[in-house]
Amino acid sequence: MTSEIKFALLNNSEKSLNDVKGLLESCHLKVDRQVDLFAVAYTDNNDIIACAGLFHNIIKCVAISPEYRGENLTSRLINEIILYAADRGVFHLFLYTKPENIRVFEKCGFYPLVVIPELATFMENTPVGIKGYCEKLSQKQHAGKRIGSIVMNANPFTLGHQYLVEFAAKQCDWLYVFVVSEDSSMFSFKDRFRLVQEGTSSIANVTVLSSSEYIVSKATFPSYFLKEKADVDHAITGIDLLVFRNYIAPSLNIMSRFVGTEPFSPITDKYNHGMKYWLSEYQTSSPTINVIEIERKKINGTPISATAVRYFLKENNLEEVKKLVPETTWAFLKENFATNSREVL
Q1: I need a surface site. Which of 44, 76, 106, 255 has the fewest CB within 10 A?
Q2: 26-38, pLDDT tens digit by residue?
């Protein structure tokens, strides 16, 4: 039967999505429209019987028609994806799957990093990826009994972010600030990283680091194999925080993680509560991390937020923007956004 099967690559056009939709639905999966490309297997009748998708460096939407399982199609499709990615200079790949599929993907050269029981597994295609990343992190270790951390998007860096860093730094011998490296924000990672560095340069016991690919993003998490939104949220939060607890924190001897209160976003507030569970309460062999929630800095009784800064920028209300950001961010915004309101400057 295998000799009759052909393989092809399909782009993410509407026709391609429709072609694989039937297969995915028959396997109780959903189409993920983020997928850039599908590797598919099809019969002489042009019936698609297996598929695997790729979004940047994340493999998604892997499905095999039940009657064709056991014919090594998963391995062949994953190999097609790996070759396609390699041709484009992408060699480090990730995938998420259900825990019961771990053995299938281990045979394809993937290694589990974190398992959320009964929900999801986070895997990468190298046995030394996370190890190498943590070894590089460990070179940035600083001595001390109280080592803290913050993870921020800083889109852009505000007086609220600066206050959080200043407060946390006073509680720690050393503080590591991780800037989310994914470029899916209004401000690029390069600009956000620069703004955090400049906005914290006067604080002696702070190191600013990239979050790396190991900080999971809801924007890229492939939820196609989870039916319930609550399960998706639980899996994303768990994977993200267990990677931090099991790998990143030990490499820097991090003992605490600081976070600002979240009065505006129920999703982020829920994440903050999940942080306490996964970092402090969940049973694992890694040391617990103390989660410290700090009341957000306010101006005229209103908590400062990057969302407000972005809103005022879009409204060209630079006078309000200036109230919410440190001088370093303001200088950057004047140079890059002040095109129509020179009188405010």
Answers
A1: 44
A2: 888 888 888 889 9
